[in-house]
Design a protein that fits this description.
By secondary structure, this protein is mostly beta strands. The chain folds into two domains: 20-165 and 204-358, 5 Propeller (Tachylectin-2, Chain A); 362-493, Jelly Rolls, CATH 2.60.120. Helices cover 5% and strands 42% of the residues. It has three helices and 33 strands. Strands 22, 24, 27, 29, 30 and 32 form a six-stranded mixed β-sheet that branches. It is globular.
Length: 495
């Protein structure tokens, strides 16, 4: 690494959630949605791409806006205003194809379809609208629920995976008019169509479709890769919700998805691309829920929507995901962690860290933005979905050019994983507090303090320092605030 890199690994003002990483040539490209920092809803009106050399994941370059919503003919003809999570694949002709779905003005109607396609000669150039996934007669393919497409070129076979899933049809009182009405409103399906599908399976659930070499025309009809009804199956505790993504590892197919728990990326494995998927486990949770048995109520961050995938970069596997900021799931930032695919094909859940792509722990020297904290909790953090919270709790936010942790209250824990400690060091924070307080510093969650840093009342950003001896070795750093209120902008080591 030429320089250190931490989570989030893109500029702090940039919000690229739903990340799909792909290696093309000697660079890795991150495709995703585009949130506005501090925005009021999901997704801006463009796709913005970043890339980095495969041998230097600290050197991310903004490739710029590659595609805008207004390029889609449906943008001007309907209330579709947002483009949700996309994916990109290299076609058999050597060109690059962008698959996406558009949403309604207020997020409604985002499942109506069709799946749209744009094309470019390069991975991150200016994509041009090509058309939509369709049948041979030109009719748009809208079978099942068109949402969050993921795509793979499987030795020349183009497969698109998509769908969403709610549990309406597994409830004991289905069918009833409330559930049917919800499906009609969300999916743009008729009552008759919903009931017809329900007799066989459902309009919901993850499905795949095979396309012709033109990247548009349906070659093989869409079909479920996992049964919608999951009760009594190994998917029961982690049923599919959204965020379809597909990878081939050796001769195995890995289907990565967001479960109905909403805060976790899960995976399923099969010997086949379109059937017999078995639940594998959770790869990452944006609250570390499930890690070492951690319960939902003990989440280490505000939790909410999760979307991402895995990629092998330079011989190392990574999971890309996003975290929430600004007390909502409308300002999501890209993060990544190293993962290991074991000889038996399994992937153990990894924890959220601050060092992510760094290739090791961060140095205990220099200044770091406080918002690289991988854990941020007051002990009762919310699970957010489609809203901006107005009640007070610690959060990563910004004001003008300042990015900081705001609304820090008594017993707030701010965690950083990991730093490489080499003995006693001067430790400083840049903070402000109307009433003052102190940070208890430890290398364990709720551990005994190794040092105490007093915070005097200050309206402006002020540096406070203390001597810190955490011993030697790679360790986490936890700051526990004791006091009424505080904001934290930076942490620093050394002079």
């Amino acid at each position: 690494m030429k320089k250190q890199v931490y989570n989030p690994f893109l500029p702090l003002s940039e919000c690229i959630p739903d990340g799909e990483p792909h290696v093309f040539g000697d660079r890795v490209y991150l495709y995703g949605s585009h949130d506005k920092e501090g925005g009021e809803t999901f997704c801006m009106l463009d796709y913005t791409v970043y890339s980095a050399p495969v041998d230097d994941l600290s050197d991310w370059r903004r490739e710029g806006v590659t595609y805008r919503a207004e390029q889609d003919p449906d943008y001007s003809r309907s209330d579709r205003k947002f483009m949700y999570a996309p994916d990109v694949v290299r076609g058999n002709d050597g060109k690059y194809y962008l698959y996406y779905c558009m949403s309604g003005r207020d997020g409604n109607g985002g499942y109506f379809g069709p799946i749209s396609v744009a094309v470019c000669d390069t991975p991150a150039g200016q994509y041009e609208y090509l058309g939509f996934v369709r049948y041979k007669d030109g009719t748009p393919m809208k079978k099942y629920v068109c949402f969050d497409p993921g795509v793979i070129n499987d030795n020349g076979v183009i497969r698109v995976y998509y769908g969403t899933q709610y549990d309406f049809e597994e409830r004991e009182d289905f069918p009833n008019e409330e559930y049917i009405g919800s499906e009609m409103n969300m999916f743009g399906k008729s009552r008759e169509e919903i009931l017809e599908y329900a007799d066989k399976d459902s309009v919901m659930g993850p499905v795949s479709v095979v396309l012709e070499d033109d990247m548009l025309t349906v070659k093989e009809e869409p079909k479920h890769i996992i049964p919608y009804r999951v009760k009594g199956t190994d998917f029961e505790e982690h049923p599919f919700f959204e965020a379809s993504s597909i990878r081939k590892v050796g001769e195995k197919y890995y289907f990565i998805y967001s479960s109905q728990k909403n805060h976790e990326l899960c995976y399923a494995v099969s010997d086949y691309p379109d059937r017999d998927f078995r639940f594998g486990g959770t790869i990452v949770s944006n609250g570390d829920v499930g890690l070492d048995g951690r319960k939902d109520a003990d989440r280490l961050n505000m939790t909410g929507t999760t979307h991402g995938s895995i990629e092998n970069i330079g011989g190392q596997w990574y999971v890309f995901y996003h975290r929430l900021t600004h007390k909502s799931d409308y300002s999501r930032q890209a993060c990544a962690e190293r993962i290991t695919i074991e000889p038996d094909g399994s992937i153990k859940q990894v924890e959220m860290t601050s060092c992510g792509l760094n290739g090791g722990a961060l140095k205990t020297e220099g200044t770091y933005p406080a918002v690289i904290a991988c854990n941020l909790t007051n002990g009762h953090m919310p699970h957010g979905s489609n809203k901006i919270y107005t009640d007070s709790f610690p959060n990563c936010t910004h004001r003008d050019e300042d990015r900081f942790i705001g609304e820090i209250c008594n017993d707030t824990i701010i965690g950083y994983k990991y730093f490489d400690f080499g003995g006693e060091v001067k430790f400083s924070v840049t903070a402000r507090s109307e009433s003052g307080g102190k940070f208890e510093i430890s290398d364990e969650l709720n551990g005994a303090p190794k040092a105490v840093l007093e915070i005097s009342p200050a309206k402006d950003w002020t540096e406070f320092s203390a001597s810190l001896d955490m011993g030697t070795g790679v360790k986490p750093l936890f700051l526990k605030f004791i006091g009424k209120d505080a904001e934290l902008k930076e942490i620093a080591f050394g002079e």
